[in-house]
Every structure is written in structure tokens, then in C-alpha cells.
Amino acid sequence: AYSKEQAQQWNGVTVDYATAFPPDLLFQYYSRYAGFDPKAIAVMDVQLDSQAWEAGLRVGNKVLAVNGKLIDSPEKFYELVAASNMVKISAQDLQGRTRQIEIDLM
Hints:
6 strands
């Protein structure tokens, strides 16, 4: 559900359930992913000057895993990224391509 609450953030990245997109963006998101899963975790925001942006993470990417561990909630994402200085995010873009995005915080 769309919410105006302040979202949690990690190094310029905000994730949430894909259903948290505003209605107009949610429709675009649904139309891009065949077999859309409302429990999918999606990137809601990426600051342009962040390491995540530089590494290729974009708004709308579906987050599949962090450091090899499947992501099933925003809380799990934030827990796993906080536990490491080298973060490997498996993400799927809106064209359905999956890639590994490495972010070195050292």
C-alpha cells in the first residue's frame, strides 16, 4: 500500500514492497513484470551521487538477494546490507535482466 511515512534508507537507497509505489508508478511496474509478485521488494529511490547509483542500481529494480541471501522483506534487505562493507545485490531491471551489483563501502 502506498504510504507517506518516512522510509528507511541505506547509503542513498530506499527499498520497500513493490506495492508501495504511488498508483501511477505501480501500474507501470505491474505492466513490466510478467507474473508480478506483490511481495516483491523493489528499489523505491536511489540518490544520484550514491555508490549504489554509480554501481547501476535504479528505481524499479526488483531486489532478489543480498550477498547470496534471498530477500523477502525490506527489513531483511536493511539487515543484510548493514552487516557488510562489501554488498552484492542481485537485482532484476524492468526489462527482466538480472545482474549482480557490487557496492564496496570500504
